[in-house]
């Protein structure tokens, strides 16, 4: 399998990425002060940056996959390195907020997911650089483009204030609601 064989995938992915980036900018422009303003929480700015990074990663890989004669290996490698640098910068940025108790580490799950994507993409990109016809590495990169869309969409959902519907979040909410509904006497009996 070659990059040319994935042409239809990269065409569709580039269109999807461009559309999602446009929608992200619209969502941010509707309430920029909540997301990027001076009073915005650190997590909102970080989430917006991570969403843009995920979508831009998918866009760059897809567009360069469409260039005749190119393989996506070098592009996947370079944008994975840029993505890893984003994560390092994001972590440096959130440490003061975490130390001050303004942010919980659990809120950074999207960064962990992006970290995994960029590490795997770096390895697959390097593999594709060595062996341009490696179908496994090309498929891995294609799957990671899709994963970037899913991470970006989930992050954008939370960015605009959508309810976290992850199973762990739902279970924790239910447990907290159950504890809150019990009286103080019931809690002391346990």
Uncertain segments? none
Note the total helix count.
8
Overall pLDDT, averaged?
84
Order of helices and strands: HHHHHHHH
Q: What gross morphology would you assign?
A: elongated
Instruction: Please tally the β strands and state the result.
Output: 0
Helical content class: over 70%
Main sheet: strands, sense, barrel? none
Distance between the termini: 61 Å
Strand fraction equals under 5%
Whole-number total of structural domains = 1
- Rg over CA atoms, rounded to whole Å, is 20 Å
Main structural class: mainly alpha
Write the layout of secondary structure elements.
Layout: H1 7-30, H2 32-35, H3 42-66, H4 73-99, H5 109-130, H6 135-159, H7 167-181, H8 184-189
Helix pairs in contact: 1-3, 1-6, 3-4, 3-6, 4-5, 5-6
Can you walk me through this structure?
This protein has one domain. 78% of the residues lie in helices and 0% in strands. The longest helix has 27 residues, at 73-99. It is built from eight helices and no strands. The protein has 190 residues and is an all-alpha fold. The protein starts with 6 loop residues before the first helix and ends with a helix. The protein is elongated and about 65 Å long.
What key attributes describe this structure?
single chain; 190 residues; mainly alpha; 0% strand
